Amino acid sequence: MAKYSIGLDFGTLSGRALLVDVSTGRELSTAVMEYPHAVMDEYLPDGVTRLAPDWALQHPKDYLEVVSRVVPEVLKDAGVSAADVVGVSIDFTACTVLPILADGTPLCFLPEFAHNPNAYVKLWKHHAAQDKAERINRLAEERGEKWLARYGGKVSSEWMLPKIWQTLDEAPEVYAKAAHFVEAGDWLTMQLTGRLVRNACATGYKAIWSKKDGFPTSDFCRALDPRLEHVVEEKLSGPILAVGDRAGEISESGAALSGLRAGTAVGVATVDAHVAVPAAGITTPGTMLIIMGTSSCHMLLGDKEVIIPGICGVVEDGIIGGYMGFEAGQSCVGDHFDWFVKNCVPAAYAEAAKAEGINIHKYLRERAKKLAVGESGLIALDWWNGNRSVLVDVDLTGMILGMTLTTKPEEIYRALIEATAFGTRKIIENFEQGGVRIERIIAAGGIAEKDEFMMQIYADVCNREIGISGSPQACALGSAMFGALAAGKAGGGYDSITEAAEHMAKVKDVVYKPNADNAAAYDELYAEYVQLHDYFGRGANDVMKRLKAIRKKVRS
Amino acid sequence: MAKYSIGLDFGTLSGRALLVDVSTGRELSTAVMEYPHAVMDEYLPDGVTRLAPDWALQHPKDYLEVVSRVVPEVLKDAGVSAADVVGVSIDFTACTVLPILADGTPLCFLPEFAHNPNAYVKLWKHHAAQDKAERINRLAEERGEKWLARYGGKVSSEWMLPKIWQTLDEAPEVYAKAAHFVEAGDWLTMQLTGRLVRNACATGYKAIWSKKDGFPTSDFCRALDPRLEHVVEEKLSGPILAVGDRAGEISESGAALSGLRAGTAVGVATVDAHVAVPAAGITTPGTMLIIMGTSSCHMLLGDKEVIIPGICGVVEDGIIGGYMGFEAGQSCVGDHFDWFVKNCVPAAYAEAAKAEGINIHKYLRERAKKLAVGESGLIALDWWNGNRSVLVDVDLTGMILGMTLTTKPEEIYRALIEATAFGTRKIIENFEQGGVRIERIIAAGGIAEKDEFMMQIYADVCNREIGISGSPQACALGSAMFGALAAGKAGGGYDSITEAAEHMAKVKDVVYKPNADNAAAYDELYAEYVQLHDYFGRGANDVMKRLKAIRKKVRS
Q1: Lowest CB count within 10 Å: A223, A389, A489, B116, which one?
Q2: Residue B146 and residue B127: Cα distance in Å, rounded?
Q3: Secondary structure class of B453 (helix, strand, coil)
Q4: Inter-chain CB proximity B531 and A524 less than 8 Å
């Protein structure tokens, strides 16, 4: 009798379930649901409370709705009984954080806080705590805090501590009421099991925690703000379990929510990107996985902890037990093209695409494909949503250069794609300069899956072969693997992630090989990118930050 | 019995006639016709001969069609007899140049040259002779040619000599066959009078000629290219007459073409921008006229010749007799917004504008108007068509910076408008640093006439009052004034341009006054503009030129 595991993958705009056969890795069914409130960046659900620039919130109610909808749906679609599901595990965007009561109730569910922005989920791309991140970085540098180097020398405004501090500062009543600040993935796992468990992956990468040294000291936190002195004990308590551990089992209320049977094994949550590494069969150093979606995440295993500037973090056991897990990222990839299509593509193109019966992205790509490398004369800096690696600076903004009166939309579109590829190459070179070798690249996520044109540009720009992860739902598959791991061999699953990977991981036959002529031509353009990258990104001309500061002042 | 004069104004895309009452300046009727071949920048009229990047040609047949259409039309519309027209004069874009036979036949009319791009009219914005301009500049600098300083230290690729040299180089057979290279305005005047006369305005500003020193020496021309040694005597012969002089009178064939009576006085042609200065009543130093159309032209009278880097030229008697005429320019203003609307405005906006029953420019302006200064966080360099003043470099390209995922089309639109205003402020400051005072600004042209939003931004950015020329057809009115001048008092016109201006020139009551808060906010943004202007424009990072060179190589 076949046994199954369910992976639950929560992205920026939707959540999905994937039902997988534990012994073969076969994906039987998948269901996806968009969050009804999507990303709230202008107003709260009340429609009147306005959000300042750089805010990005979500509603935790949406996550519960997704679970209650997609889990029953995959079971029904596949004709599988909940009794044959041995385990389930969740992966989630991070750091996506919310304040909750001790019983798990999100503060935004309380009527008194319904109109308080700080009571909602701060999504990973909430960037309004930049001043806090800067003060953390300044103080950590001054004090020589050794954890700073693990994160490439900079804490991001996207992380846990700046977001908590912003809440304390702007809404002390929310801070006071919160029993915990918790990653949304851990919160949702708690909704299934009834028990709060924090995952070492998100806690390590986003909350400045390490297995060896724990969190920043109370002394450091007090120096930041006296009110923060006990933030770790008071707001971040609870066991921190390793990736691959068992968080618990489905409770009665978890069963009512999900339709799974009480007692089913539940894995510790992970960060959505990281879980895709074993799903692509990567269990040793030397291969980089790039998850390409709205943003991109670059992950890599290493034998030893080395300090690399501008990466997002290095966390022991953070991706696969027994290795250092390195992470870097680009905060704007798919988002880039969506912005472009929504704001910059003329009616004539939209009509022509419609007439041809194709998606506007496809229409643009088909035209962009006909251009030779360098033919447009354009170059862009891919910083529409700041720069995560290697500059770690959310106050950087986008730039495009080279326009003439004959510049066409498909040329700009291609330049934006190339800019994200140059950004990836910068990350790769940064790792190698730091002594972490990269022999092979595997890409996963929607773009890797669907966009041959873009993948070929990446191969040409990076001058490396790029393989493609075998599952269109790499993250959900990874979570299903961790669900099987939570069950353990005795429970119908596996006892190690490598064992699970042997049976369940997948890589496609497709390999994008660099075209030598294009690679040579891109070398020349990449040199220009690097020069502009350093000029605008490393302090020679901080015009982007100054303009952003003016913008903020004017809008406030 | 009232007497009339006709001004013929030839712009980038169309030609127009304006019928004016000589004694009152009243504009009785106007007629306009678009050039059937518009600007040819991809193919010759044969539809198969492809043009390289940076080419911009026109067909001289179009100009003849315009004359034969619009002159009879204004007479008919106003119910005026050709017998009551005392004079006519032409203003034309410059340097817009064509090779002709001794009898005036354009070489492109000959079947043997119909497929030869170099036989057509090279429009002012033809930029494919950039290498020639650079060699002229280098040699002139090496030899210390004193005329170089008159032109701000740089000859532009838009001018006569680079364009002639390109023809010699690429199509020696066209060069050999040509009896003259001539400004289109002078050629068209020749079609009316039967006699070739060159105008001092275009010859001074665009052909490196001065009343005092003549053309560059044959020694200089030989050093450029031995084949050019006698270019002045062989290809640029003919009398050079001052602005305001009489070129001749309508010939029999000129009468057949235009419907005017043989013997009617014809003025010497002028450059379209310059002729608008007296039309706005400017006959003394201290007031700058800005003609704002597809490109912008800035003109100013001065008491003495001073050397100012980066201007287009200073020509004695070039605008008004008795003064030095200074000229500067921006090569992409209205073109900018047309490019944007054609290539970057999403379907949703086009539909919304349609639903509101307004033009898309108006729709964008209404949204852009609601933004506060600095609110968009954007800044642009207005170099989509190179930079004329003060950098004199057609190989510079556009740049925009500050985009985020919430950037909206109207924000980009406004940033482009602001960029052109910053460019104008740079020109004003450059004149003042050079010792030429500017107390007042008057604007003319389509944008000045119609776009209150843009004019207010210019007033705020420049922190000066801006008046508006009184005629919507300032150039054509200026030509009509020169037509009256050609007739002379005895012929029913005037004997001096100041006298003509007293009766015929016009300024509106409208004055745009700077808003102090906006002006202060713009000071901050302008400082950013200047820093980027100098970084990309003065050699710190020649990325724009390198990308343009790559583009050219790839496309050739």
Answers
A1: A489
A2: 25
A3: helix
A4: no
pLDDT tens column, B51-110: 998 999 999 999 999 999 999 999 999 999 999 999 999 999 999 999 999 999 999 999
Residue B206 in contact with residue B181, Cβ under 8 Å? no
Q: Do A535 and B553 touch (CB under 8 A)?
A: no
pLDDT score, position A180:
98
- The DSSP 8-state label assigned to residue B219 in this structure reads H
Give the residue-averaged pLDDT of A26-55. 96
How does strand B180-183 pair with strand B198-199?
unpaired
Q: What is the radius of gyration, based on Cα positions, of chain A? A: 23
Taking the CA atoms of residue B312, residue B318, residue B319 and residue B325 in that order, the dihedral angle to the nearest 10 degrees is: 50
Q: How far is A292 from chain B (nearest CA, A)?
A: 17
Task: Of B24, B94, B92, B76, give the one whose Cα is nearest residue B481.
Answer: B24
Helix (H) or strand (E) holding A519: helix A516-537
| Angle at CA of residue B146, ends B143 and B152, nearest 5° | 110
Alpha-carbon distance of A445 to A254, in angstroms, equals 29
Find which of B130, B345, B387, B401 to mutate to test the A interface (most A CBs within 10 Å of its CB): B401
CA–CA separation, A154 vs A436, rounded Å? 19
What is the C-alpha separation between A463 and A466, in angstroms, rounded? 9
CB contact under 8 A, A377 and B548: yes
List, in sequence order, every beta strand (DSSP E) within B236-277: 240-241, 246-249, 265-267, 270-271
CA A528 – CA A525 distance, rounded (Å): 5
pTM exceeds 0.90: no
Residues B448-483 pLDDT 10s: 988 999 999 999 999 999 999 998 888 999 999 999
Q: How confident is the model at residue B306 (pLDDT cuts 50, 70, 90)?
A: confident
User: Can you tell me the distance from the alpha carbon of B86 to that of B504, in angstroms, rounded to the nearest whole number?
Assistant: 15
Distances (CA, A) of A515 to A249, B146, B357: 51, 52, 50
What would the pLDDT profile of B319-339 be if each residue is shown by its tens digit? 887 788 999 999 899 999 999
Number of residues assigned to chain A: 556
The whole-chain average pLDDT of chain A stands at: 95
Lowest-confidence segment of A496-500, B41-45, B402-406 by average pLDDT: A496-500
What's the 3-state SS for B32-94? EEECCCCCECCECCCCCCECCCCCCEECHHHHHHHHHHHHHHHHHHHCCCHHHEEEEEEEECC
Gap between the Cα atoms of B2 and A165, Å rounded: 82
Give the mean pLDDT of A350-359: 95
Q: Is the pLDDT of residue B341 over 90?
A: yes
Q: Which of A373, A375, A401 to mutate to test the interface with B (most CBs of B within 10 A)?
A: A401
The partner residue sitting opposite A404, judged by closest CB among B347, B397, B528, is B397
Average pLDDT, integer, range A11-18 = 96
C-alpha span between A128 and A433 (Å, rounded): 32
Residue B5 sits at φ, ψ, to 5 deg, of -135, 150
Q: First and final CA of chain A: distance in angstroms?
A: 62
Give residue B239's Cα distance to chain centre.
Answer: 23
Contact criterion met (CB < 8 Å) for B531 and A553: no
Report pLDDT for B392. 86
Helix axes B452-462, B360-369, angle to 10 degrees: 40
* Structure token pair of residue A266: 């539940």
The answer to whether B406 contacts A41, with C-beta atoms less than 8 Å apart, is yes
> How big is chain B by its Cα radius of gyration, in Å?
23
Sequence-separated (6 or more) residues with CB below 8 Å from residue B442 = B280, B282, B287, B288, B289, B290, B466, B467, B468, B469, B507
Burial grade of A252 (CB within 10 A; 0-12, 13-18, 19 or more): exposed
Nearest-angstrom CA–CA distance, B437 and B429 = 10
